[in-house]
Structure formats: C-alpha cells, structure tokens
Amino acid sequence: MEKIYYDKNGYPVCCGDVLRVFHFIGPRRKRFYMWKVVMENYKRRKGMVAADIRELATLGADECHVCDMEALGEFEIVDGMGGFGLRSYDYFTERPKRK
Question: What is the pLDDT of residues 34-68, one digit of tens each?
C-alpha cells in the first residue's frame, strides 16, 4: 500500500500537484521558496516523488532530478487538480482533510 502524504494544511497530496517548499531566508528577512511538481516515479523508487518545475520543463521527466516526499519537510499545495481515491474532485481544497 502506498503511503499518503499531507501538506501543512492537512490536504492529501496527489500526482500533478504543485508544491511550495521553503528554501531559505534572504536579505531583509525575505523568504524564498522552491516550486515542485508531484509525479509518480517509475524508474528507481516506488511511490511519489517531487521534481523541480524548471528542470521538468527544460530536461523532461526522464532526466530531471527528483527527491523523495520525506525529504521536503513542511510544504504547501498551491495548485492541484484531479482525483484522490475513487472519487474525482474539482480542486484540491475539496479533498477530505486529515483530522
């Protein structure tokens, strides 16, 4: 059974979601973020992985670097369409939250 990941607001993560991950604090305390896309990894690992949006657009899904979902730490879903489980939802905010 595949592990279910949740963002910091309690929404379950599905393939195709866009995640905002904290990266570092810059000058004048400005917070910088990384933007990742969740996808199914069919090569080396089982389950979902996150790929950098820029690398995915320029290199493609076969050559971009991916990281495990556990390595991301705290993240937030900023965009996501599609279903979760047997029911299809219109937007990620309609998915059932973790209690």
Answer: 999 998 876 666 678 888 888 888 888 888 888 88
DSSP 86: T
CA distance 60 to 54: 9
**Domains contained in the chain, number:** 1
CA dist 95 to 11, 12, 39, 73, 86, Å?
A: 7, 7, 18, 21, 12
Helix (H) or strand (E) holding 25: strand 18-25
Residue 57 gets which letter from DSSP? H
> Does residue 98 form part of some domain?
no
The per-type count for the chain, helices as H runs and strands as E runs, is: 1, 5
Minimal CA–CA distance to 97: which of 3, 6, 2, 4? 6
